[in-house]
Design brief:
74 residues, mainly alpha, elongated
């Protein structure tokens, strides 16, 4: 049982360190969440407008991006 307690104590310590390390990032996201969401919505709107105005170019870009990604994955 002694080894189990040691392992549990170490795991709890590692978990506490991970939580402490993630706390500043979580706080930053909480502070800037609305700004991030607003910027994301602007990007989606601009993309939608571009695709609506240039459907063939958008299709070509999508095909090219898919091809490049498939080549990188291999």
């Amino acid at each position: 049982m002694g080894m189990t307690n040691k392992a549990a104590t170490r795991m709890q310590g590692a978990l506490d360190q991970a939580i402490d390390a993630a706390a500043p990032a979580a706080q930053w996201i909480e502070d800037h969440g609305q700004e991030i969401t607003a910027n994301g919505e602007k990007v989606v709107a601009r993309t939608r407008d571009y695709v609506a105005g240039n459907p063939l170019a958008a299709l070509g870009l999508a095909l090219a991006a898919g091809y490049l990604i498939s080549r990188l994955i291999r």
